[in-house]
Amino acid sequence: MADAQNNQKNQQQDLNQILKVRREKLAALQEAGKDPFRHVKYDVTAHSKDIVEGFEELEGKTVSIAGRIMFKRVMGKASFCNVQDLKGSIQVYVARDNIGEEPYADFKKYDVGDIIGVKGEVFKTKTGEISVHASEVELLTKSLQVLPEKFHGLTNTDQRYRQRYVDLIMNQDVKDTFVKRSRIISAIRRYLDGQGFMEVETPMLVANAGGAAARPFETHYNALDEDVKLRISLELYLKRLIVGGLERVYEIGRVFRNEGVDTRHNPEFTLMELYQAFTDYHGMMDLAENLYRFVAQEVLGTTQIPYGEYILDLGKPFERITMLDAVKKYAGVDFNEIHSDEEAKAVAREHHIEFEERHKKGDILSLFFEEYAESHLIQPTFVMDHPVEISPLTKRKPENPDYVERFELFMNGWEMANAYSELNDPIDQRARFKAQEELLSQGDEEANTTDEDFMNALEIGMPPTGGIGFGIDRMVMLLTNSPAIRDVLLFPTMKSLDK
What we know:
The chain is α+β, with helices and mostly antiparallel strands. The chain is built from 16 helices and 20 strands. The strands form 5 sheets. An 8-stranded mixed beta sheet has the order 6-10-11-20-19-18-15-14, with helices on both faces. Strands 1-2-3-5-4 form a 5-stranded mixed barrel.
């Protein structure tokens, strides 16, 4: 224990000395009129990957690159360093006779982590490594901190999430994930725009946070002296736009749910919802299947998606199964043969399914599905026709009003999308809101309250409409083979270090 403490103390002393030296170097540069922070721009003509992939065309030509020094080896009159930029890294050969004696003396004092600009010719070394032979080197930013040790990198998971900027520097696969995230969202927009959808924005601060079963964050609007909530969904405002005659709308935006954090949940996350007039949930199934297939092909170049131990096949038609049939298949319980809430509760007790006394037959069917069926739904599967008790905004099935025209898309055992034939009957909707308020009074903090302005919109008249919500973060997790939602959020929610 004493040896470990002494070792840690010595490491801290060494680090303090290194940091002191870096600040002394900066002070010396500034005193000599070479303040690296004076630079406001640097003309970059190529990135590392472009040079490597386009070597045959660029060999012998002059390029300007800029990036961070990740490795440096000084050998008398000539030195090598690796410069890392957005697209990767490339070796730079720096010789005193090419850049000049004074600039070379300055270069030798540069540290790993410093950001430099390099102008020079593209060439290949004797060992075959594509490099840049520097004719000019400029210090653009002095790094006053020390990057993690090269061979071990930034491995502490908590520190990686808290200091994502260092994580992006040290781990190329992390950078690749977030580049893919951006491309995924761009591909989604291209697909929907090509289908005639209009992207819109709706309020984040709302008086009534509805549209999902979730507990909202609450705050106070000082200027109006009113309590408001952060939205938990995009649904109710987008439906207002359908009422207004915007027949195809979508929004990609942050929503906020006051819930716990785990591998698939973050209280602040990105949701996409879209609504299309004059279609139903079957139309939404076709859209969801085609959208996933398009995005995978555009971003990954394939519809065979590796995730963990599985290969998810987005190229073949997605399976479709009702919730009733899924429970019958995986739990061996046929809810068509259960005719009352009490019978459902008795079956739940037999199968050790925990429920609350307020739960009805439909609630318990959903609990069976979660317990027995979800984990089996690895390949893309639409689970259809949910009980009305768990679907307060969904149109009933005309031939069986205990169930609704709703589906959830599952992949890898996860819910990836949720869609409805939207309820447009204002009388039925008011009754559903009333039932939700009764649940709220019984202690269900995730139940909705009646949104009178939304009710007014429905009474004006909403056409038959299909709607769907996609969890963008889960989509990114799946398409980048990322194990946790924090791996696809640049700045995930973290507990404060001083708590």
